[in-house]
Amino acid sequence: MTSIAFIGNFDSPIYRTDESRLADALERQGAEVLRIGYPWTGLDRLVRSTEIDWLLFSKCRQLSGRRFDKLIQSARPRLAQVLFDLMDYRERRIRGVPVMRNRLQWWLPMAAKFDIVFSKELGNFDRYGMHGVNCIYLDQAVDPMEMPLESTSARKTTDIAFFGRWTPNRQESLSQISGNAQVTTYSVRPNAWRRSAFRSLAHVDGVEFAQAVSSARVIWGESATHDVAGYWSDRRYKVMGRGGTFVTRYTEGIDKAFTNNENILWYRSLEEAEDLVHSLLQDEPRIASIGVEAARHVHTNHTYDHRAAEMLQVLTA
Fold it and tell me: Bridge partners of 136?
């Protein structure tokens, strides 16, 4: 049995975290998982006193260089990181407030010290490899328990739904795509959307998320970037797993995971998206069939149990 000490966020008061979903899946695949939340005071003593095969980190924002070096100088197990964040961010400002900083400056020197980094930034692997980072592709997924609602006749209360934070690009894109359609956004900061004249509700999770998905004819998705091959938001898995009809911008590699016009719909320009959404909203049978196939596809091929099995195959090799 592979023993893993998993350091991550397991206690969010707002939603069930991906670390929790992945830890549960690793246990279902036969691993022994010790969950360690932040702050992880005394982790170096724990590593010295227990038999752990792998020390698995998710986000490392609370790691300083000296603290991390002290940890790996212990009689340590092997080190791995599972990284669903986009590290290749550039600093950007919204209304004069910096919201993104380049994480690579602090992450790359530290990442090279991991034996393995599981990442979804496939398009950046060559560049990261030049800095000594051993990357293996691992995407996010859907929790196998998060199925569509049993009722298939849920009343549609909005034409288009979007789940995520407000940004200027998202506002402009959604305004153009939606036309005269009714739009509802869901966000941890709904007031930002409301200031832009969008109907916006608070972030939802679990059954409430499933209800929100089933109440919309179409769910539009816009990731932080569509320029990195293999990288896209986990919202598509969560939406599709709940039976949502998902429309998003094309990203290199998406055609290896999904099939256009069968279980997902993608576009390459906003003009194409505008036409696509307009025609889709006039075709209820098409919306229904794509949603059904979306749920079937992700629960057959893209659950956290699949990802956990992929990880353990690497960790035990």
Answer: 118
146 lies in some domain? no
Same domain membership, residue 112 and residue 59: yes
Check whether residue 218 and residue 310 sit in a common domain. Answer: no
| Whole-angstrom distance, CA of residue 252 vs CA of residue 111 | 25
Query: What spatial distance separates the first Cα and last Cα of the chain, rounded to whole Å?
Result: 13
DSSP structural state of residue 269: S
Q: Is 306 helix (H, G, I), strand (E, B) or coil?
A: helix
Q: What is the CATH number of the domain that holds 234?
A: 3.40.50.2000
Could you list the pLDDT tens digit for every one of the 317 residues in the chain? 899 999 888 877 777 889 999 999 999 999 999 998 876 667 777 777 678 899 999 876 556 667 777 777 765 678 899 988 777 655 455 454 444 456 777 788 888 889 999 999 999 999 999 999 999 999 999 999 999 887 655 689 999 999 999 998 899 999 999 999 999 999 999 999 999 999 999 999 999 999 999 999 999 999 988 888 999 999 999 999 999 999 999 999 999 999 999 999 999 999 999 999 999 999 999 999 999 999 999 999 999 999 999 999 999 98
User: Count of alpha carbons within 13 Å of 268, Cβ hemisphere only?
Assistant: 4
Residue 69 is part of which domain span?
3-141+304-315
Q: How many CB atoms lie within 10 A of CB 38?
A: 14
The candidate with the shortest Cα–Cα distance to 187, out of 168, 157, 169, 161, is: 161
What is the C-alpha to C-alpha distance for residues 288 and 290, in angstroms, rounded to an integer?
A: 6
Q: How many domains does the chain fold into? A: 2
